[in-house]
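To illustrate the input format used throughout this study, we show a single complete record. The first block contains the structure-token representation of the backbone; no residue identities are included at this stage. The design step must infer an amino acid for every position from geometry alone.
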């Protein structure tokens, strides 16, 4: 029996969303309304992207604070280290921990146009794995122990040395990182991130379930033990599809592309994009994906339609208590 024929498994698949920080003041209010809708669906977490070279440091943190204080959902902060000195990266992680963030997606990030991989611009941390290690180290300094109130003994506190778990996720690339030389390099990179302390991965978007499922199988055979969440992007217009392919370097999904190109109405294109994402998600769940991570493009309707199409909304309709991994 698979998840498509087993509603019980399908109903318990966790999901999460990804947002980007608003680009102007008008977008702030709209994004907060989007977050409220997404939070009501009960995701595991909502992640917030981080602009290249720290360009969105303040606006990303503002969105994370909103999720922390206005919802019961855990926020996950994307952080990049490219171009940072060791001290700058340390201060950055500390700032996010001070704000109350406990979930991170540690990324190396891309050098700005005109800088090569070999350039000194890359900074002190050369890979996402080094940022994973740094996050764990700063967290250990930040909270070396916990104090718990002892019931019945006013003012007394018990000291616990085990620290609350920090979730440190990393990126994975089912179809290869654009600069990777071979699939085995992508798997080796993932193993290096695991050795550094990563405990979750989220994939780059892809359009065919087989690409994800065969990547997962190879990663597990090589010794990757943490869950790898598939990143799903519902694509609802031909223009957006072209932009996404340019940015990600993914191959054109010809079937989806033709359907979007010949459909004249925006509503029809949206329906095509949702239906494609629903079918993809169902195949992933059936193949054993541990959850779904949906790229929301700062709008709630499309991703919630995808979850609804997969039968995942009803059991998650109530926001859950915040809990750490
Ligand atoms: P790394 O894992 O460090 O890898 C970079 C390159 O070096 C790869 O080619 C890798 O194969 C190679 N490499 C690294 N370590 C090793 C090793 N030990 N052995 C062999 N090869 C190695 N970018 C942003 O700027 N902001 C964001 O918010 C953001 N969010 C993202 C979210 C997701 C889910 C994904 C998939 C990507 C995101 N990115 C984001 C893009 C990301 O920053 C780029 O893809 C970047 O080029 C690589 O980052 P990385 O963390 O995968 O780097």
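Output of the design step:
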């Amino acid at each position: 029996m698979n998840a498509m024929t087993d509603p019980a498994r399908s109903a318990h698949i966790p999901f999460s969303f990804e947002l980007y920080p608003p680009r102007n003041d008008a977008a702030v209010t709209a994004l907060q309304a989007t977050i409220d809708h997404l939070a009501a669906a009960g995701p595991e977490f909502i992640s917030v992207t981080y602009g290249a070279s720290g360009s969105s440091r303040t606006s990303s943190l503002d969105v994370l604070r909103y999720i922390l204080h206005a919802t019961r959902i855990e926020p996950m902060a994307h952080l990049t280290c490219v171009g940072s000195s060791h001290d700058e990266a340390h201060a950055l992680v500390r700032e996010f921990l001070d704000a109350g963030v406990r979930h991170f997606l540690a990324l190396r990030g891309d050098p700005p146009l005109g800088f090569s991989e070999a350039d000194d611009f890359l900074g002190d941390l050369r890979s996402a794995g080094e940022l994973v290690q740094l996050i764990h180290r700063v967290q250990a300094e930040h909270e070396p122990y916990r104090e718990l109130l002892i019931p019945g003994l006013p003012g007394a506190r018990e000291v616990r040395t085990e620290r609350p778990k920090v979730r440190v996720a990393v990126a994975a690339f089912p179809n290869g990182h654009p600069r990777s030389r071979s699939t085995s390099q992508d798997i080796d990179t993932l193993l290096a991130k695991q050795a550094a302390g990563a405990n979750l991965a989220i994939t780059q978007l892809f359009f065919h379930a087989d690409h994800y499922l065969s990547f997962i199988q190879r990663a597990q055979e090589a010794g990757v033990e943490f869950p790898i969440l598939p990143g799903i992007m519902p694509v609802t217009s031909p223009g957006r599809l072209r932009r996404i392919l340019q940015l990600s370097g993914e191959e054109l999904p010809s079937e989806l592309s033709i359907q979007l190109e010949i459909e004249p109405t925006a509503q029809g294109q949206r329906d095509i994009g949702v239906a494609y994402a629903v079918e993809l998600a169902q195949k992933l769940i059936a193949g054993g994906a541990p959850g779904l991570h949906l790229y929301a493009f700062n709008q709630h309707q499309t991703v919630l339609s995808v979850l609804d199409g997969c039968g995942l909304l009803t059991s998650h309709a109530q926001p859950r208590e915040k809990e750490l991994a």
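Structural context for interpreting the output: The chain has one domain: 12-145+161-317. The CA atoms of residues 82 and 110 lie 7 Å apart.
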